[in-house]
Write a structure and sequence with these properties.
Elements lengths: L1 E10 L2 E11 L4 E5 L6 H9 L6 E6 L2 E2 L10 E4 L11 H11 L4 H14 L15 H13 L5 E5 L7 H18 L2 E6 L2 H7 L2 E6 L2 E6 L1 H6 L4 H6 L4 E7 L4 E4 L3 E4 L1 E2 L8 E6 L5 E4 L6 E10 L3 E7 L7 E6 L9 E5 L5 E5 L3
Parallel strand pairs: 3-8, 3-9, 6-7, 7-8, 14-21
Antiparallel strand pairs: 1-2, 1-4, 4-5, 9-10, 11-12, 11-15, 12-13, 15-21, 16-20, 17-18, 17-20, 18-19
The structure holds adenosine-5'-triphosphate.
GO molecular function, one term: ATP binding
Enzyme class: translocase
EC number: 7.6.2.11
């Protein structure tokens, strides 16, 4: 539905986007995820029409978007700051865009009523923004974005101004809403948990390029580059040389078991990534595993995080277990994992 084809944009000597191509389907909830400065907002602004690319094409249902001014694109953009009019009521804020389009009064009233119902704010229609909570203001901004029935809704860090609890509620709300209205959503975020919980598919950006486009679970379980492995969730990364189909050869530890995602030339630089929850803590006397000493144990309610100093490994190995941990700092242990739970990829990018 939305096709981004070879988009590049430079600002002086900064390359904000370098030949980015993506295809986003009708009704999809799609996330652009990456660290600050990787170019995701620039791409959103190009789609919306507030920025012009140096090269590339953007089409929506086969129609060229770039030649149209922002107000002639069937797109709404929702910013991080909600930009509500403080002196207008909730209903007026939502009606504003439709009034500008000079729709009949009755139709405006009906559509505003419907959309306030959808976001659960019917009872607050007569309030002003200052009389609302952060989460409610967020809903007004959403209502205002969808009341115009855009084909595409772009959201720039939509939840970053909310505190943690409200944010979790709004994540659920956004998902429900997207499902209900059936509009294609493209959200920009630097928060990988948010992207994973919201999106059907995620594009991971790194310095102006797309590293991987996948469903959340595949990004998590099958990262295809060290960047993605490190950026999406916590990972333990071990470096070594590619060696056959069942592991890497590490200078410090010998063979480390893992599963390569693609064929790597024997001897080539490789990285093995294993998630904290896939690591098992064994007794120091166990025959298999890397010997280490527990540095720290933190309990987070449902899970505990244990960091283990493994001599020869540059960072503590992070282990996650369900519930309370049975080890204490100072304990001698071995860390180990099953080959199918560790992913091997080419080192470098
Ligand atoms: P953030 O999450 O911090 O907003 P981002 O991933 O959205 O980051 P962009 O805002 O797209 O990143 O910026 C990408 C790069 O382009 C950055 O290095 C930024 O400084 C630069 N950049 C963006 N807009 C401009 C501009 N108008 N003029 C000059 N440089 C810009």
């Amino acid at each position: 539905m939305l096709k981004i084809d070879g988009i590049s944009r430079r600002f002086g000597d900064v390359t904000a986007l370098d030949d980015v191509s993506l295809e986003i389907g009708q009704g999809e909830f799609f996330a652009l995820l990456g660290p600050s400065g990787c170019g995701k907002t620039t791409l959103l602004r190009i789609i919306a029409g507030f920025e012009t690319p140096d090269a590339g094409k953007v089409t929506l249902d086969g129609e060229d978007l770039l030649s149209r001014p922002p107000n002639r694109r069937p797109i709404s953009l929702m910013f991080q700051s909600y930009a509500l009019f403080p002196h207008m009521t909730v209903a007026k804020n939502v009606a504003y865009g439709l009034e500008r389009e000079k729709l009949p009064r009755q139709e405006i009233k009906q559509r505003v009523g419907e959309v306030l119902e959808t976001v659960g704010l019917s009872a607050h229609a007569a309030r002003r923004p200052a009389q609302l909570s952060g989460g409610q203001r967020q809903r007004v901004a959403l209502a205002r974005s969808i009341v115009k029935r855009p084909r595409l809704l772009l959201l720039d860090e939509p939840l970053s101004a909310l505190d943690k609890k409200v944010r979790a509620d709004m994540q659920l709300e956004l998902k429900r809403l997207q499902h209900e209205v059936g509009i294609t959503f493209v959200v920009v975020t630097h928060d990988q948990e948010e992207a994973m919980s919201l999106a059907d598919r995620i594009a991971v950006f790194d310095r102006g390029t797309v590293r991987q486009v996948d469903e959340p679970i595949s990004l998590y379980e099958r990262p295809r580059s060290p960047f993605v492995a490190d950026f999406v969730g916590a990972n333990n990364l071990f470096s070594g040389e590619a060696s056959g189909l069942d592991g890497i050869k590490s200078e410090k530890f010998g063979m480390l078991a893992g599963t390569p995602l693609e064929e790597l030339e024997a001897g080539a630089g490789a990285l093995l990534a294993v998630r904290p929850e896939k690591i098992e803590l064994a007794d120091a006397s166990a025959t298999r595993g890397l010997a280490g000493e527990v540095l720290d144990v933190s309990f987070y309610g449902g899970v505990s995080h244990i960091s283990v100093d493994v001599p020869g490994h540059p960072k503590p190995v992070l282990v996650a277990v369900q519930g309370a941990a049975s080890v204490r700092p100072g304990a001698k242990v071995k860390v180990r994992w099953d080959a199918e739970d560790a992913v091997i990829m080419a080192a470098g990018q």
